């Protein structure tokens, strides 16, 4: 057995990122870790397997209840337990109007208060995050597809930040969210674009949320649009084969013993001055 310490970055826990960090190999686009000679399991799964080998059925789920609750807790509850009961075990919400993220703050599914009161713990429930209804997650949930596309057509500046910071893109997968946003901004019917090469690449999105919650300076929704396209592509039975080209930014390091930082400059050159702004003299 060998222990590998992952770097402190998001999404270090993504299975394809783990495969590359630990083995140096890249899972092919659209493939599973097994295609790179690896199997990725989390601790809870391994524990459940060990119990199954002893004839113990999977009936309990370990999950976190946190956010705007009186006493954040980690619970072990039977599958089928209501979210309402889980919130009561955490001392109850601290606010009357709230939304609930089922899962993590980056990748979880946002539920209204009313939806959360009717929700139950399943085998995939990992956490219950209570947030103010007027917060970013609550506001984003209220935006429908038509408004997402309207905002994309009027506000997307094609800065490519969503693509540059996409972990799948940096692993070499041909996923470019900014190109998907450009094409989706010109339609109101996604089904008309399902054979477009860039749109087909939406199937590679891991829905980590980096593009949507961190990268985009305009507050647009590349992750949600990709998720919608994945559903449309699956419904239509559209498949595609991909090639791999790992990006230099994924492994870039400053020279040993030299000054440098893991950041991306807008141009080649030498830093001439640093005050309220950074001035670079082009070389």
Supply the key terms.
5-stranded mixed beta sheet; Ubiquitin-like (UB roll); 283 residues; two-stranded antiparallel ribbon; 33% helix; 14% strand
Structure, described:
By secondary structure, the protein is α+β, with helices and mostly antiparallel strands. The protein has helices spanning 15-23, 43-53, 83-89, 113-117, 136-141, 145-155, 161-164, 167-170, 177-184, 197-200, 210-215, 222-236, 248-251; strands at residues 60-67, 73-78, 98-102, 109-112, 127-132, 269-274, 278-282. The protein has a five-stranded mixed beta sheet. A two-stranded antiparallel sheet has the order 6-7. Helix 9 (177-184) crosses helix 12. It is globular.
DSSP helix fraction:
25-40%
Major β-sheet profile: 5 strands, mixed
Secondary structural class: alpha+beta
Per the principal axes of the C-alpha atoms, what is the gross shape?
globular
Distance separating the two termini: 49 Å
Mean pLDDT: 89
Radius of gyration: 22 Å
Blueprint of the fold:
Layout: H1 15-23, H2 43-53, E1 60-67, E2 73-78, H3 83-89, E3 98-102, E4 109-112, H4 113-117, E5 127-132, H5 136-141, H6 145-155, H7 161-164, H8 167-170, H9 177-184, H10 197-200, H11 210-215, H12 222-236, H13 248-251, E6 269-274, E7 278-282
Parallel strand pairs: 1-5
Antiparallel strand pairs: 1-2, 3-4, 3-5, 6-7
Helix pairs in contact: 9-12
